[in-house]
Amino acid sequence: MKKLLALALLLNPLSGLANDAIGIPAKGGQPEYLFLDKVSREAAPSTAKMISDALSIGRLVIFAQMPKIGNPALADKGFGADVFAEQWQAALEAQLIDITPKQEALLEKLVWAGKLSMDINQDRINTPGVKYKHFLPAKWARETGLFFNAKTGVYTKQPSVNYRHPSNAPDANEKKVLTTLVQAGETATATGEFTQMGKQAVYRYFDPVKLMEPCLACHGKPKGELDMLGYEKDGMSAGDVVGMISVAIAVED
Ligand code: HEC
Question: Mind listing the pLDDT tens digit for each residue in 186-200?
Fold first, then answer.
């Protein structure tokens, strides 16, 4: 074995790298922390809450269409970006009260991101003959968050107890908060804190996502049984905290 390794090092022109671990996160840097849209310390909590609430509401708008989206007999579902945005914006009305111009501008960018996700998923949503098309509220919120982050630098994520998408793996902070929220169960409420991400001062907001009856087909019982996508079910009940919407927004000091 040792001989083989020595031979490999000899033959490899980059042998200096051979002893370094491969596939670990790069140190330093601040890719996501290069926030474009910063808010004042005073406005940070309400802005983060507005973004989180808008994502939750958007998730519900998608959720309401799931029976139609999952109908294999239908091709065109008539649920394009504009139809979605109309429903989402109507549901967002209450959010617009007491909103600052800066918050309104951010919400506009979030709506743009949400529409973009709907747009790029049209072929998927309109595929006939397939019941499960891998389009659901969490996927919409993940992609919307990605586009929103690219445009604004504001970070959003849906860390969960048993996350299915790797980009929802909780960071240390999210893990700590999620543990508390899961323990609180049905009584869990949103929480937030001022902290740092890299060198950037941020406000982080965490809103629990609780399971409803229709979620249990995949996130319910019995734990470990495979759901329709082949993931192991989470073994949870309606009302349980399955995850959270996590928002981080840069504050200017
Ligand atoms: C058809 C099975 C299915 C149902 C029903 C379902 N989910 Fe999920 N859930 C998934 C899949 C698959 C993902 C990963 C989506 C992605 O990011 O592409 C996911 C992701 C999530 C996430 C983000 C964390 C992660 O796992 O990546 C949350 C939070 C979540 N679901 C909550 C819910 C809630 C709340 C409901 C009911 C409103 C629900 N789910 C219904 C399959 C399901």
Answer: 999 999 999 998 888
Q: How many CA atoms lie within 13 A of 86 on its CB side?
A: 5
Radius of gyration of the chain (CA): 21
Paired sense of beta strands 155-157 and 241-252, if any: antiparallel
Mutate which of 215, 233, 247 for ligand 1? The one with the most ligand atoms within 8 Å of its CB, which is 215
Give the span between the Cα atoms of 144 and 114, in whole angstroms.
5
The rounded Å distance from CA 136 to ligand 1 centre is 7
Q: What is the mean pLDDT of the chain?
A: 91
Q: Where are the beta strands (DSSP E) in the chain?
A: 39-40, 155-157, 191-197, 200-210, 241-252
Length of the chain: 253
Ligand 1 midpoint to CA 141 (Å):
10
Evaluate whether 92 touches 57 at the Cβ level (below 8 Å): yes
